[in-house]
Amino acid sequence: MKKKAIALVAAACSLAMALGGCGSSSSTSGSSNGGKVIVTAFGSEPQNPLVPGNTNETGGGRPVELLFARLVSFDNKGNAKNEVAQSIKPNSDSSEYTITLKKGWKFTDGTPVTAESFTKAWSYTANAKNAQKCASFFSTIKGYDDLQKDGLKGDEQLSGLKVVDDNTFTVTMNQPDATFPVKVGYEGFSPLPESFYKDPKAFGEKPVGNGPYKFSSWDHNKQIVLVKNPDYKGNVKVNNDGVTFKIYTSTDSAYADVQSGNLDVMDSVPATATKTFQSDPNVEAYNKAGSVSQTFTIPSDLEHFQTNTEEGVLRRQAISMAINRKTIVDKVLGGVGTPAKEFTSPMTPGYSDSLKGESNLEYNPKKAKELWAKADAISKYDGTFTFSYNADGGAKPIYDAIVNQVKNNLGIKAATNPVPTFQEFRTDVSNRSIKGAFRTGWQPDYPSPENYLYQLYDSAAADNQGSNDGDYKNAAFDKLMDQAYAATSTEAANKIYQQAQEILLNDLPAIPLYYGNAYGVAAKGMKNFTMNWQNQPVYSELSK
Questions:
Q1: For the chain, N or C: smaller number of CB within 10 Å?
Q2: How far apart are CA 184 and CA 101, in angstroms?
Q3: CB under 8 Å to 289, separation ≥6 — which residues?
Q4: Is 249 a member of any domain?
């Protein structure tokens, strides 16, 4: 799976935003576009050409998401619904899927979307010779390892994919995977037309998709123009005639353009406006709980804090209860966060704010002190508890507040340990050289609890084999992960993930702090401004 360690912890900072180019302040009124409603949106210059399997950052992700329709689409809350797929049927243990496509789908060049449009695209992306950034998403499909070897030509196919007919193909997995019907909604699983393989580089400059919008033009470092696709027949309701992504290098400039009506929508706000944008009379503001989870991790083998000992669990629970998350969100983040209630996010299907053990995330300084004293009765702790973070990501005020709360509420010695850069910080995490707590964060790749839980806390992801940076290992938790993979439906899997979370809420291998909110602004007069589970504006719904 793709691992997304979040470099920027402050909610005021944009995530994964490689800005490039110049801002634009052209008029966006409907009358200037021949009566058509064209939405102008904040954008950044894509890192790569617009090929779905090689796009994993927001500059390219915004337009790619609108240009390509996958087997399933997600509603604004992250619930999956069949899109190009008529059905995705698993066998008894979710180790094989039979996928049937709806008839009549076409790419914008007029060619049909067939089973091979998917199998060839997935195999191309998975093939190491092609060096696609989304390759690892296909790792649970049979034959993936064979496509990682040296000496490949680039056109070898995943052996687990078999075309039955133009509208049917089967997928054989390396292992049971009940989340597969959700994963296929990620943009890396998009189909590609035959024209792509003739010249992938040229295709990326003028992509041909099958989504709600079709490509019009790309003026590098200035704008990417998409227009409504009249032949699209999927789930997305399109309320406008097109979306033009304006390329900005400054969020302050973009925000000023929204205020003046020269930009219609922006999926963030600059740090200078974090505390004021919701009361700004010149914009339509949005600020609700989002999908990014911010935590700090305590190494599971840290002396006095081991997750497999009563003393260690007591101390973890005490530290968690000593932290006033609401104060941090309100006073430090300016309200663009939501106190955590569990290990996924409010935008994740299966989320619950009332799981057993949730009280361990509630501010309770009296009980925190009692638990700490109980742990001291087992084995006295006289050390200084440290919190490490990358100093280049805006985390300082957050961890200053945490240290003060822990010191005052537990009566212990605590201190911050800032590391100059994110790169150095992550190297220290990977080398397991941090002897205290360290900040962690996660941005999901698809709306499933699996993307948070298995990737961060399963034993298989420990010891630098994945993103389990605290090397947490719990056999009961691992067993539930296996059961969830083998579940016969996402609903059944989500119930198992909730059981697994109750183990995490007791052991606290990491301490959930808050969810980074989905927040942004639209120009006054824009209609239907909302943001989805990916913390992105729902561009298709926007109108004037």
A1: C
A2: 13
A3: 338, 345, 346, 347, 515, 517, 518
A4: no
